Amino acid sequence: VALCALSSHATPFSRPHSLYTSHYRPKELYSTVVRANQIYALQRWLLRLMWSFRLLGLLATCTALNLSPLPPRKAPLPPLSCTPPLTATVALSLSLLLTPTICFAAAPTAEDIKISKGYEQISGLLDNWNEATTNCKTSNDNPYKGNCDRTPIKVMEVLGYKSTTSPLFNAEKTLLKVQLNGELDKVLAERWGDDSKKIRSEELRYQAAVDSYLQSSDEGSGLAYISSWGEANPGGGKDRIELFIERSKQDVLNCQKSLGIVKDVLGI
């Protein structure tokens, strides 16, 4: 402001328009214009300096009060990555290596369950043949004396010719269904892979076992049924009952062998 007062023709922060009037001589006009321009430039410099001091005072005040005149800048987010951290990758690899592999077998089908239970019942019948085919009851005439007779009922029950609840009831349908529903082909493909010769051999083995079982079960049940009428037929007796029961035992043995082959082919 003091510097601005040096010139009587200029006011602060404005150009002296009166300098361009016509009563000034050229030389005097030139020197006056130069001095006015110098004063104007100095005024602008002082104005900038004043605002600089004001800004420095504001920054000092904010620093003393622990404030920030500008909003805080957020830290940039880390770039997204689909690759897991190295530590997680190493931990996962170690867990897979140290954890024992657990293989879950396919759930057995209804046909597999019937075949397995039927095989177990036939094996139990053969292991206890005499007890299973003998019925002991107390005589009405002498209650202190046992009266034991051979009976083929158990043979027909186990082979599925006496009760519909037997696992081998309608066994032909069960064994053929294994082939028709594709279970046999699936099992053989899993066990033998691309070995077509072995697969064909196992298919023939399965079919032969099924044919043998059906024939033996029919014959065994037929002999057991004949045995039940052995004493009632003309010339018959208890010895005829026992004869046909023992003949049916061979067929039951053949049924056990055939079902064992079926179980082996199917892996059950």
Name the features:
mainly alpha, 268 residues, 9 helices, disordered N terminus, 4% strand
Describe the model.
The protein starts with 25 loop residues before the first helix and ends with a helix. It has helices spanning 26-64, 86-98, 110-127, 129-132, 153-158, 171-180, 183-192, 196-228, 238-266; strands spanning 134-138, 146-150. Helix 3 crosses helix 9 (238-266). The protein is built from 9 helices and 2 strands. It has a two-stranded antiparallel ribbon. With 268 residues, the chain is mainly α. The chain is rod-shaped.
Mean of pLDDT:
76
- Unreliable residue runs: 1-22
Rg result? 56 Å
Which structural class best describes the helix and strand composition? mainly alpha
Topology order in helix (H) and strand (E) letters: HHHHEEHHHHH
Number of helices: 9
Q: What shape does the CA trace take?
A: rod-shaped
Distance linking N and C termini: 111 Å
Q: Strands of the largest sheet, in order across it?
A: 1-2
Can I get a quick summary?
This protein is mostly helical.
What's the helix and strand layout?
Blueprint: H1 26-64, H2 86-98, H3 110-127, H4 129-132, E1 134-138, E2 146-150, H5 153-158, H6 171-180, H7 183-192, H8 196-228, H9 238-266
Antiparallel strand pairs: 1-2
Helix pairs in contact: 3-9, 7-8, 8-9
